[in-house]
């Protein structure tokens, strides 16, 4: 009986919660809804802007504001850290508007949204090293920005995308370095060497590539491969700190 009452209370709470959300978005003309959404966007009230824009999108899916509403939602979702919704909206918009004049911006926002997926607020606050975290969102962001530069080399967002790719490359290189170091600590000497060499080949002009030479040298020493140790030392001399 208590379980039944609890279930009923939860159902009522959800029902009233949904009702409150509907009440929060008044039944006004689309022009007024859009004006309210723009005011919220300009004031940084992302949740309010999203409510208005989502109401516009659902109530008037083929209205005069359809495309701009989608673009505004992409930005508002990103700013509000609703990253999964942002990516879903980007995919939808790109599918329906493959030749839109702002396609470069949409691709740029896709990169930013993927980058944000690699961010963790608590890690930032606590200054936790994140190099060993799965870098899949970073790879996706790098691919997005690379595609932007290839398709829209004269885009207003190309320069910033190129700048961000440098940071992303360093993030990916640091992940490989952390992996090589993990193998070294586990005494998996061959795996440490292979990952170090892969890093040096893929990300040659990074600090991580230079540091990987130290891991490579130690692994060769543990294997008693003196000639390879000497070659690695020569590479280290060519790439000083």
From TrEMBL:
<keyword id="KW-0472">Membrane</keyword>
<keyword id="KW-0732">Signal</keyword>
<dbReference type="Pfam" id="PF13525">
    <property type="entry name" value="YfiO"/>
</dbReference>
<dbReference type="InterPro" id="IPR039565">
    <property type="entry name" value="BamD-like"/>
</dbReference>
<keyword id="KW-0998">Cell outer membrane</keyword>
<keyword id="KW-0564">Palmitate</keyword>
<feature type="signal peptide">
    <location>
        <begin position="1"/>
        <end position="21"/>
    </location>
</feature>
<dbReference type="InterPro" id="IPR011990">
    <property type="entry name" value="TPR-like_helical_dom_sf"/>
</dbReference>
<protein>
    <recommendedName>
        <fullName>Outer membrane protein assembly factor BamD</fullName>
    </recommendedName>
</protein>
<comment type="similarity">
    <text>Belongs to the BamD family.</text>
</comment>
<feature type="domain" description="Outer membrane lipoprotein BamD-like">
    <location>
        <begin position="27"/>
        <end position="233"/>
    </location>
</feature>
<dbReference type="InterPro" id="IPR017689">
    <property type="entry name" value="BamD"/>
</dbReference>
<comment type="function">
    <text>Part of the outer membrane protein assembly complex, which is involved in assembly and insertion of beta-barrel proteins into the outer membrane.</text>
</comment>
<keyword id="KW-0449">Lipoprotein</keyword>
<comment type="subunit">
    <text>Part of the Bam complex.</text>
</comment>
């Amino acid at each position: 009986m208590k379980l039944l009452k609890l279930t009923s209370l939860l159902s009522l709470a959800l029902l009233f919660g949904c009702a409150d959300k509907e009440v929060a978005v008044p039944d006004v003309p689309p022009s007024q809804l859009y004006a309210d959404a723009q005011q919220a966007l300009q004031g940084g009230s992302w949740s309010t802007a999203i409510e208005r824009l989502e109401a516009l999108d659902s109530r008037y899916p083929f209205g005069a504001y359809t495309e701009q509403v989608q673009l505004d939602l992409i930005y508002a979702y990103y700013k509000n850290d609703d990253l999964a919704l942002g990516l879903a909206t980007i995919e939808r918009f790109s599918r329906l508007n493959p030749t839109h004049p702002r396609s470069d911006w949409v691709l740029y926002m896709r990169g930013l949204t993927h980058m944000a997926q690699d961010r963790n607020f608590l890690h930032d606050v606590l200054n936790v090293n994140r190099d060993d975290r799965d870098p899949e969102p970073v790879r996706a962001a790098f691919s997005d920005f690379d595609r932007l530069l290839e398709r829209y080399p004269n885009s207003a967002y190309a320069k910033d995308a190129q700048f961000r790719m440098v940071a992303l490359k360093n993030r990916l290189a640091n992940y490989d370095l952390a992996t090589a170091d993990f193998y070294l600590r586990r005494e998996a000497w061959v795996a440490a060497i292979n990952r170090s060499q892969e890093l040096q080949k893929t990300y040659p002009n990074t600090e991580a590539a230079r540091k990987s030479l130290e891991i490579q040298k130690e692994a060769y020493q543990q294997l008693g491969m003196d000639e390879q140790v000497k070659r690695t030392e020569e590479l280290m001399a060519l790439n000083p700190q």
